[in-house]
Structure formats: structure tokens, C-alpha cells
Amino acid sequence: MTKKGKNPWVAVLLSLLFPGLGHFFLGKYFDGSGYVVAAGILWTAILLRSSRLMTLDPVALLFWFATAAVYFYAAADCYRKAKNNIFS
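The structure assignment produced for this chain is given below.
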């Protein structure tokens, strides 16, 4: 359950540091776990395929777009849930 009075900007900052941290701050552990897993998969790919991902081919660009999408969607989701005091 999300506690009232949680600062949405703290949740956004934590989520931009690593997706899922802002959700954990809000007490949304299930949501946060999903974002942590998604970001973990993306960071594992970065570590394993870093030479390929530093090129400008379409696969690398798609990968970087997906990474940015996870980060920004997690941040926006944290802000929305903290601002609206969504429970459950």
C-alpha cells in the first residue's frame, strides 16, 4: 500500500537512478520488482554485448530506445502513483 505523504520527486529520482527503486520507496514492491528485472536484463545485455551496442546499427538503436523507455516509464509511473496516492 502506498503511504500518503511520499514525495513524488524523490520517487522519480530513485527510479531514474535505477528502475524499481522509486516503487520500492512507495511500497509498491511487486511493481518495483518487475522494473528491477527488466533493467537487470538490459544491463546484463550491455555488459555481455557492449562492443555491438556501441555501434549505430538498427539493433543497437532499438536496444538503447528500449532501455530509455524502461527508465522513463518507470519514473513516470512512480510520479503518477505517488501524486495520485494510488493504493494496492
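Interim note for the steering committee: The chain has a mean pLDDT of 86. The chain has one domain: 8-83.
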